Amino acid sequence: MSWISAVILNIPLFLTIFFDQKADFCMEYWPKPKWLPKAYSSTWFFVAGIIPVMLMTVLYSRVVYSLWFKREGNLENTQQGVMKVRKRVTKMVLTVSVIYGLCWMPNLTIYALNYFSPSQNYGDVTYITSIVLVTCNSTVNPFIYVFVNQKFRVKMKRLLCCGKSWSNRVGVSNDSTRHTNDGTNTITQPTMEE
């Protein structure tokens, strides 16, 4: 459903964008009436910015409250372990959400202001900086996972060590059972030749 919504939300952009050779930049050309680009940029601002940030703020504040501030009686060791894991996962998801807001809101704000304020221009330093922030949002998530999640960190170390993975090596087996083609198994003593 979210992919369908994203495609529908981007259709007007696909129909209005063109490359301006004078500006050496992709621009949007909106037909009249003048309220169309304002409505479209405002929709993006609310659908991709304000609504998700508000939802994340409300929902994660409830989760944080119940995990850190709501006191329950004495917990058993297994329950304490589960709470510790939940807190760690919550920290990770909260960090990803905060970085989403910090990276996307400047771009969405500039995009909306571009149609409400004539002082905003595509291609200026603030716009390019906001595009860089949006791009950084996509690249920073793996680093957050490495920083917060120990299992992810171990897997990334193994992946980046280029074949120096210790857990995937085939070990020497002392199995003395030989499987034969006739369906019988024979037991032999390992020799030096094996």
TrEMBL record:
<feature type="region of interest" description="Disordered">
    <location>
        <begin position="173"/>
        <end position="194"/>
    </location>
</feature>
<dbReference type="GO" id="GO:0005886">
    <property type="term" value="C:plasma membrane"/>
</dbReference>
<keyword id="KW-0675">Receptor</keyword>
<protein>
    <recommendedName>
        <fullName>G-protein coupled receptors family 1 profile domain-containing protein</fullName>
    </recommendedName>
</protein>
<keyword id="KW-0812">Transmembrane</keyword>
<keyword id="KW-1133">Transmembrane helix</keyword>
<feature type="transmembrane region" description="Helical">
    <location>
        <begin position="43"/>
        <end position="68"/>
    </location>
</feature>
<dbReference type="InterPro" id="IPR000276">
    <property type="entry name" value="GPCR_Rhodpsn"/>
</dbReference>
<feature type="transmembrane region" description="Helical">
    <location>
        <begin position="89"/>
        <end position="113"/>
    </location>
</feature>
<feature type="transmembrane region" description="Helical">
    <location>
        <begin position="125"/>
        <end position="148"/>
    </location>
</feature>
<keyword id="KW-0297">G-protein coupled receptor</keyword>
<dbReference type="Pfam" id="PF00001">
    <property type="entry name" value="7tm_1"/>
</dbReference>
<dbReference type="InterPro" id="IPR017452">
    <property type="entry name" value="GPCR_Rhodpsn_7TM"/>
</dbReference>
<keyword id="KW-0807">Transducer</keyword>
<feature type="compositionally biased region" description="Polar residues">
    <location>
        <begin position="182"/>
        <end position="194"/>
    </location>
</feature>
<dbReference type="GO" id="GO:0004930">
    <property type="term" value="F:G protein-coupled receptor activity"/>
</dbReference>
<feature type="domain" description="G-protein coupled receptors family 1 profile">
    <location>
        <begin position="1"/>
        <end position="145"/>
    </location>
</feature>
<keyword id="KW-0472">Membrane</keyword>
